[in-house]
Amino acid sequence: MTTPNPLPNIQPSPRVPKAVLQTLIETLSGVQAVWSTDPSPDLGRRAGTERAWIILNLQSFRNVGTDELRQAYDPTTDSNVNLQLGNRQFTLSCGARSLDATLEAYDLLERVRFRLRTATARAIFAPANLSLRDIQAVQVLSGKVAGTQALKAASMDVRWNWMAAADPLDPGQGDYIATVNGDGTTNGTIPFNE
Fold it and tell me: How many domains does the chain have?
């Protein structure tokens, strides 16, 4: 006999948009980007690209202020929905590595830095509720030599603002007032999409 689970089915909370950040860095750099926590057996060996890559790592993560619970009118259901929002700041560390004799690791990071403020970059990160806070200095790291191959290395921190938002259709978000018994008038209602 199985015992029923006493806990409600809770959906995952908002997550840092890692896939968006990885796509952003790959698009701006033109080389492979991987998270430090992901397996990466073939770095710098993708056909048609420079023999270089960028390793991404989340260095710090903090909340700004207090999370908010807002209500917004949803015209499709003719009811208010709960929206949970929270402002966050985090630092994305970008570690560039280059085996390419014609590409320095710091030049690869400068390529990313230069392009982060373009419309192309904004089109990638803005839909994920991200905004660029600032970009720290590029640090040149001591490279390694393996045989006749030199591995050049550099690091740069990019600080981001992120609006973490819970999906109003997430069943783990709790209940909301669907209807109110009253005279049918609601003063001061602001439609959600205006």
Answer: 1
